[in-house]
Amino acid sequence: MDNINLYNRQEKLKLNIPNTVCVLGLGGIGSWVALNMALVGVKKLFLIDYDLIEEHNLNRTPFREVDIGEHKTTAVMELILERRSDIQIRIFNKRIEELSIYEIEEISESKSIIIDCRDVIDKLPNTLQNNPHIKLGYDGLNITVMINPVFSDVWETEENRGYQITPSFLVPCQFLAGLITMLLCEPNFDISKMENESVTFDISKHFIEVIKNDKDFTKIKNQDSCVAKATKKRR
Questions:
Q1: How far apart are CA 21 and CA 115, in angstroms?
Q2: Over the chain (235 residues), what is each successive 10-residue block's mean pLDDT?
Q3: What is the reported pTM?
Q4: CA-to-CA distance for 25 and 92, rounded, in angstroms?
Q5: Topology classification of domain 3-204
């Protein structure tokens, strides 16, 4: 594939595209994160997930009905290679705790940015502690982003570290995937200078407040209404 033609429309943005990314957990968030990273131009991806695709995954992931029963890692890799045949992808169909020391060292030495999309909050293996690390999660409409988190500050005990059964649909997953892709590619963003930073908010309420309080948005909205009325009159 001709990457010059593929990416010429984003050149002027001067994006700071990561070279290597490791996506941990390929469910609602991780499947989109991996696809986004590939499409934006990341050269190498590590994909880690032990799980198989089930029917209930299809309402919030890019997976297809024909993918049911397949490993999530394999399905994501296939989706990516249909679009980015030049990318390097390493898949691991197991939990990160089950990786061999050589596999962990391979990820560590690649200087991968690790994007943890698992539905539990847990420590990374010691060998990966120095890699830049982002933890993403959502609970209903509440999303959470943690950058280089300190595990002991997130949970005080080892119990109840995972999400409970919560309503899930497409928007929080795609919102988080788009947000973190934009953040990592931002020219002025340096993840190595951030430690234990986190934010949690309700995306629906937050967006509504922005619409209500942003004067520029209101101005644009009013202009659009005028254009719509003028168009209707001409018809």
A1: 7
A2: 76 93 97 98 97 96 97 98 96 96 96 94 89 92 89 51 69 94 93 86 78 63 46 45
A3: 0.85
A4: 11
A5: Rossmann fold (3.40.50)
